[in-house]
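Lecture notes, unit on protein representations.

Consider one protein chain, 359 amino acids long.
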Amino acid sequence: MIITSLIMAGGKGERFWPKSRTNLPKQFLNISGNKSMIQQTVERLERLMEIDQVFIVTNESYAELIRVQVPHLPEENIIIEPVGKNTAPCVGLAAIQIERKYPDSTMVVLPSDHIIKDEEEFLRTLRAAIEVASRDTNIVTLGINPLYPETGYGYIESTNHTVQINGLEVHLVSRFVEKPNLETAEKYIQQGGFYWNSGIFVWKTTTVLQKIKEFLPVVYDILSTIRTALDGPDKEQTIKSEFIKMPDESIDYGIMEKSDHIYVIPCKLGWDDVGSWTALDRINDRDENGNVIIGHTLNMDTKRCIIESNNGKLIATLGIEDLIVVDTEDVTLICSKDKAQEVKRLLKELRSQHLVQYL
């Protein structure tokens, strides 16, 4: 059995502004540890497969960053998405190229910007998922055991139908549910059988392409046109001209919610999707006042804040609580923690005022 992986690395990480920028988004930053998030993702996968079997899909703007940060990745394993059309076209474009190089491989699909602290458990869970996915047309996803009623994640509800693989429970999925309000999320936690959707999927390349053909025929037809050009001189031009015709479709809505034989493996991985600045509260140590402090700071009567200095300049705080303060070379962000998910509003305003140099 051949195992391959696809890392999705085209996101802008806008809620991590001003540290995450258009020319250096979140996945290329050192958020936790001394390596970037994409470097850590690649290193995890290299414990499971050879680098030749690792693929990264991104846009043209970030291809050079990948070459610099992952220099041992084969050039042909960087798959360029001409325009963002959501995850289903993105995965489909990669699948036809991976299938061409590694026919009938079992493919792990995962984001480039998640933190996983328990790598041993992650690899054990992936091995179990690969074993299940390699059988027939099964699809497997990793479900994170919820630690609290999070409203920013989608959830997966499992059934009582389970099997044991390598000491892990593998549940048949009942349904995928959208991001809930707080009351609903609390019910999920109390009821049990609900897991955070990690966005990590495992399937055979042939399986995902068959599912695209079945549920997203327009996407499949465009992929078929692209596939016929992969060996020809017009490959790049065909990809560009055809991919732009793709409908905007997500894997979750387009395939996962419609398919049978989907399984979830509940797991505890020390996982975090690092969706906004408040993630630093979860992944970093806090001082005696509940602050996460990074860089050169002086803090008095300061509680439950996230403060980061990126340029050596001293940040001094006095009498503040529940704030995010991030200082970069040209921008200083001051934001209440309960507005962390809304940082993208600032970027929208910068664009409206034509202050694109700060993006």
